[in-house]
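To the team - adenosine monophosphate complex, inputs and output below.
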Amino acid sequence: MNLILFGPPAAGKGTQASILVEKHGYIQLSTGDMLRAARGSDSELGQRVAKIMDNGELVSDQIVIDLIDEQLALNSGAAGFIFDGFPRTVGQAKALDQLLASRATEVHKVIRLVVDEGQLLARVTKRFEEQGRKDDNPETFAVRLVKYGEDTAPLLPIYAEQGKLFEIDGMANVDVVSDAIEKALKTGR
Ligand code: AMP
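Output:
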């Protein structure tokens, strides 16, 4: 089962991805985590993307597509993948379809965590206190939300049209959201 966890920054995608990994043994592929790891290792890629990430902008499609391609190859025997924070543009979504088709599989379900954007800043502030992420500040967060609306939200009608989109209340507590995701996974299409 290949799933996309969809939603704006701080919607709870990472938290739910970890639960899914635990429950099902799927592999979580978070492009944000991969890019932060690249930065942490002071690699050439990390240096290239640092400023873009700190400004809340999106790095180029090709960079994240290559990262995903690499991870799909490394985990070829996986029971399934959870795409977290990817795809974020129509180009990335098309590339993902191709990468999966070349491995005789596809995106099976897209789980959208529907959240009240007005309450996300409080979550981001809390996360900054816990994790110290440089881009979890009000100014950068505002840019990230705009990018989500402009570049990422347009994917929703595409997945809805394909009958793959499941919408879940992401404002409920973690366990309730997780139960709702499990239910969506069991729903046939
Ligand atoms: P995230 O942890 O998913 O919120 O990602 C943190 C930052 O990494 C984003 O604000 C972008 O700068 C960059 N990033 C992560 N995933 C992508 C992606 N799929 N496409 C472009 N940029 C990304």
